[in-house]
Specification:
- There is one protein chain.
- With 430 residues, the chain is of the alpha/beta class.
- The protein has helices at 19-30, 46-56, 67-80, 93-97, 99-103, 115-124, 198-204, 216-229, 246-259, 275-283, 298-304, 311-324, 341-353, 371-378, 404-418, and strands at residues 4-8, 36-40, 60-64, 87-91, 108-110, 132-136, 139-142, 180-183, 186-187, 212-213, 234-237, 264-268, 286-294, 327-334, 358-363.
- The protein has 2 domains: 4-142, 3-Layer(aba) Sandwich (Rossmann fold); 167-429, TIM Barrel (Alpha-Beta Barrel).
- A 7-stranded mixed beta sheet has the order 2-1-3-4-5-6-7, sandwiched between helices.
- Strand 6 (132-136) and strand 7 (139-142) form a beta hairpin.
- It is globular.
Length: 430
């Protein structure tokens, strides 16, 4: 009988449900695998992991890792292999684009979305499972990608697995929130910003629709069930760009107000909202909308990042949100290749003109799968192998002319200029 242990490396120890593990766990259960446990680095110790592996004795140990988590996942996995013989499996963006790094240390690497292919592999141990690179002795089977799963046919994510993450204080909310859930109405993003791996995923799945929407009523029923189960004060809709289909979000808001009607927060883009959409969101108790400004410099924002957003569009979106009564939070990046201090200060100026209520400014990092990863490698930039735990105070990328300290000082200048939440956990980091 298969026994599955999920490992969530979460080296930053951020308090947020991991939707990938929740989705995989739920689909495994739907297909008859009920013996599933989680070791979560957010709360659990290495001593607890050793005890868990020895007592539970899993047949499969499954990791998901963003790039910053990969080295720690490797460390954990190498330690477990000294005393246990479970098949070790890893997935996530990092190994999707750098599978050779994964297969060097793990038995199986899943590339892309593995909802169905993971089930298939655990059922059959087939070396030809789609989506997987599989090590068998001295042979590595490098199989073609599986098709993207139909999100309308997948079960609700296993939120119970991450219930400890629902006890969360929300810095960007004005409300007294103690229990906070995370939900997703769609997968994928249709846009191709160069600092993100979304374009890389779209290229991998060329010919398939990467941005896929779930059935609205099904999502609402999921939110209703779990918000009642955990007595949630508010929730976060974690779609990469929630409002790509304006009619859909208006329909969502109407049913949400009737069935759930608790405060919520979300992310979208300035050119994916208008007054009608934002008014519907406000009427359905949307408290905060987070949108990317990223850079105030047209050369950086549209030339380098390929955001295809004018200043007028950005200012309109933020001002309109404020007009209808939704508070705003802005995403920003500093320290991109070739970016100057003057251009970074243009970002501060544009945030001011948008009258953002809160904002985040991270330091640029180069990620596998992104267009800027290729740009940096092809243009001789130094990219450090070790990713930072905190993007607000460090980077794996060496800027043309500026030091990390200078970029941190620039971040402080940004935070001082707008006030509000900075995205940094510690005061000394702002």
């Amino acid at each position: 009988m298969s026994k599955i242990l999920f490992i969530y490396p979460n080296i930053e120890k951020s308090i947020q449900e991991n939707m990938a593990i929740e989705a995989l766990s739920a689909n495994l259960q739907l297909n008859g695998f009920s013996d599933i446990l989680l070791w979560d680095n957010t709360f659990d110790s290495k001593k607890e992991l050793t005890r868990l592996v020895k007592e539970f004795s899993p047949t499969h140990i499954c990791y998901t890792a963003l790039s910053p988590d990969f080295e720690y996942a490797k460390e954990i996995n190498n330690a477990i292999k000294e005393y246990h013989t479970a098949t070790t499996i890893i997935g996530g963006p990092h190994v999707t684009f750098l599978p050779f790094e994964g297969i060097e240390h793990f038995d199986v690497v899943f590339r892309g979305e593995a909802d169905n292919s993971l089930v298939q592999y655990i059922k059959t141990s087939d070396n030809k499972t789609k989506g997987a690179w599989i090590k068998d002795g001295n042979t590595i089977y490098m199989n073609e990608l599986d098709d993207l799963p139909d999100v309308r046919k997948l079960p609700w994510p296993d939120h119970d697995l991450f219930n400890l993450h629902m006890d969360k204080k929300i810095t960007w909310s004005k409300l007294p929130i103690n229990t906070y859930g995370t939900f997703m109405t769609a997968r994928g993003c249709p846009f191709k910003c160069t600092y993100c791996y979304s374009k890389g995923m779209q290229d991998l799945y060329c010919g398939q629709k990467y941005n896929r929407h779930r059935n609205i009523h099904n999502v609402i029923m999921e939110i209703k069930y779990f918000s009642d189960r955990y007595n949630m004060d508010a929730l976060y809709i974690i779609d990469e760009t929630l409002t790509t289909n304006k009619k859909r979000i208006i329909d969502f808001c109407k049913e949400y107000k009737e069935v759930v009607n608790i405060p919520w927060h979300c992310e979208t883009r300035p050119n994916a909202v208008n007054e009608e959409v934002l008014s519907a969101m406000k009427d359905a108790k949307c408290e905060t909308v987070m949108m990317g400004i990223e850079s105030g410099s047209d050369r950086i924002r549209n030339g380098l990042y390929k955001r295809n957003l004018s200043e007028e569009q950005i200012i309109f979106a933020f001002k309109t949100a404020k007009k209808v009564g939704i508070q705003t939070s802005a995403f920003n990046i500093c320290g991109a290749p070739t970016e100057t201090i003057e251009e970074m200060r243009e970002t501060i100026d544009l945030n001011k003109r948008c009258s953002v209520d809160m904002g985040k400014m991270t330091i640029f990092n180069a990620f596998p799968g992104s267009e800027l990863w290729d740009y940096c490698n092809n243009n001789g930039y130094y990219i450090r192998k070790q990713y930072p735990k905190n993007y607000y105070i460090d980077s794996n990328f060496q800027h043309d002319t500026l030091s990390i300290k200078q970029l941190i000082d620039l971040r402080k200048e940004y935070v001082d200029s707008i006030g509000g939440y900075s995205g940094s956990k510690n005061k000394e980091e702002v």
